[in-house]
Amino acid sequence: MKKRKGILPWLFSAMVVLFGIHVAGAAEPGAATEQAAGTMTAPTITIDKTELNNGGVIKVSGQAPAGKPVYLEVWAADHTVRANRFDSEKDKDSGKRPYVFYITSEMPAYYKTFVPKDLQPKIDAAKKEGKKWSYSALLKDLGADMAYSVPAKAKIDRYQSTLMASVVGSRGDLLPAMDEKENRKRSMQLVKARFQSIDKVVAALVEVKPDGSYTADIKIRDGLAPGKYKIVAVVDKKVKSEAATFENKIAFPTVYLDNAGTSMNLIYPFVLTLVVAIFGVLMGAGGGFIMNPLLLALFPALPHTIVAGTVTPTVLFSQGSGIYNYSKINFISWKLGSGIGCAMLLGAFIGPKLTEMITLDQFKFAFGWILLVLAALMLWQTTPGYLAKNKKEQSILKEFKKRAEETAKGKK
Amino acid sequence: MKVEFWGQEFEVNMVVGCIGGFLIAVMSSMFGFGGGPFMVPLMTVALRLPMYLVVGSSLLAIFFSTTVSTMRHYQFGNFDLIFFLAMFPAALIGGYIGPQIAKRVSPLVVKRVACAGLVLLALNLLGVY
User: Fold this and answer.
1) How many CA atoms lie within 13 Å of A41's alpha carbon, on the beta-carbon side?
2) Is the peptide bond prior to B41 cis by the omega test (within 30 degrees of 0)?
3) Residue A299 burial class via C-beta count within 10 angstroms: exposed 0-12, middle 13-18, buried 19 and up
4) Looking at the partner chain, which of A334, A338, A344 has a beta carbon nearest the beta carbon of B22?
5) How far apart are the first and last CA of chain B?
6) Helix axis angle, A384-411 relative to B51-75, nearest 10°?
7) Rounded distance, CA B109 to CA A394, Å?
8) With contacts defined as CB-CB under 8 Å, which chain B residues touch A390?
9) Which residues of B touch A306 (CB under 8 A)?
10) Cβ of A339 under 8 Å from any chain B Cβ?
């Protein structure tokens, strides 16, 4: 008898320990929320495959409490990208423009919420607002804001921009970190800044039956980040399923561009650059100004900052070889070139900062007008008056060049 | 400022040149192109310099701005190495093939094609179609 009594506390403590382990193990979203929610059971989730080759369709199904809408939160777990936004919109209350620059490097490379099918009309209504749609308002309208969790945790830095800071090309002063609620709000704006269109962040695909079982054919488009993706079914703020994981695989020549956050078949930009470079030589221009808009138009997944930042060094080398060729025959006025060059140094210091601060739409708008001006310049260069003058100029050019070449040869 | 080039002396209005160069540099570095097509008209039309002086010198000037803009873009993390490696060899090959084709086509036709292409691209960016 006495022995038995001795065992009981042991058994009890063992149970406590076991229970403790159980609770600790349940720190994963699913089980923990199940307990917190009390009466409502967490939805289950199963997916029909765990591997995709550069996109594809995944069938998701499961059981949720009857009569509840089911939201699926899907995100890329292995890759994050940068997202930034410059807030210069007038504050409704104070009428002041904040000029604050928000940036995070922890935005998932893919993030999308799938909502029940019957919510499609609400998405359509939001699309009618055009480019001014608000992600947070849309989520709220769909009831999906409670399913919004992953980007909310991204660490966002914010900088107070000033005119002076812009002139010297800095981002401005780093402001103190935001609280959780503010971070969540700003992260929603960054989601929009990063993914641009409604179709990329929400889709009405989940079919929920009256008994609470649900199915969804989730289409993962091509050109996305490789690696693990996670899907969580959400019924309420704290009632979530376990995360189902699948892997997106890509194979060469499709390669993931780390900074751009998209995968891409490398043959396309190669061929495109080849054609543009040849054309650029024929036209007598670097080709950067054709390359940029073409890339933007053909690969909408590429962020404009990456396009501008990567085409620039490509152009650099063709300029360098041009300079080398001219300098061989001493055909460059170093004084004139570097004189104007110094003024251009300043301008080039500011430019890339501005690229970062404007949105894709502003970028496209400004670039569109620049191209129109350029087209007008080109057209002017084909008018008879210009041609007559140019012919004379070209013959003088040829003559001088010949003389320069001969002198260069003579020196040898 | 006076510039001497192959035995001739030219008077250059540096104020106009520098302001124009500055604006072109902001624009070209912002949108990631060289700026040559704007620089040449600036120097020939606004500064009234002859073509043979402009061809080399404008290239040098935009080389300055492109170098700095490359560094700045890199600093801001706008540069993607793999993407660059896909484009760079193509640009080199293009630069090699281009001049050989150039002898056989009329620059006038090329310019008109370019003009039409630019307008199409511009309208695409502006969202007209």
Assistant:
1) 11
2) no
3) middle
4) A344
5) 48
6) 90
7) 17
8) 51
9) 78-80, 83
10) yes
At residue A112, the 3 state secondary structure works out as: strand
**CA nearest A260: which of A56, A4, A53, A79?**
A79
Cα(first)–Cα(last) distance of chain A, in Å? 113
- How many angstroms separate the CA of residue A109 from the nearest CA in chain B? 15
> pLDDT tens digit string along B40-97?
888 888 888 887 888 888 889 889 899 999 998 988 888 888 889 988 898 888 888 8
A365 touches chain B (CB under 8 A): yes
- Average pLDDT rounded to a whole number, residues A135-157: 90
Tell me the chain B residues in contact with residue A381 when contact means C-beta distances shorter than 8 Å: 111
> DSSP letters of A214-257?
EEEEEEEPSS---EEEEEEEEEETTEE-PPEEEEEE--TTEEEE
The CATH code for residues A40-249 is: 2.60.40.1930
Please give the single-letter amino acid code of residue A342: C
Chain-centroid distance, C-alpha B105: 21
- pLDDT band for position A13 (cuts 50, 70, 90): low
Rounded distance between C-alpha atoms, residue A233 and residue A231, angstroms: 7
Q: pTM of this prediction? A: 0.78
Does any CB of chain A come closer than 8 Å to the CB of residue B13?
Answer: no
CB contact under 8 A, A319 and B37: no
What digits encode the pLDDT tens for the residues A274-289?
Answer: 888 888 877 766 677 8
Domain boundaries, chain B: 1-79, 80-129
Q: How much is the pLDDT for A35?
A: 45
Are A369 and B126 inside 8 Å of each other by CB? yes
Contact A374 B38 (CB under 8 A): yes
CB-nearest to A309 from B79, B118, B125 is B79
**Residue with tokens 């009466």, as numbered in its chain:** A39
DSSP, residue by residue, B45-98: IIS---HHHHHHHHHHHHHHHHHHHHHHHHHTT---HHHHHHHHHHHHHHHHHH
Interface probe, candidates A298, A299, A304, A312, chain B, greatest B C-beta count within 10 A: A312
Residues facing A107 on adjacent strands: A81
Distance (Å, whole) CA A57 – CA A220: 6
The tokens of A247 are what?
Answer: 């892997």
Q: Judge whether A111 and A74 are in contact, CB under 8 Å.
A: yes
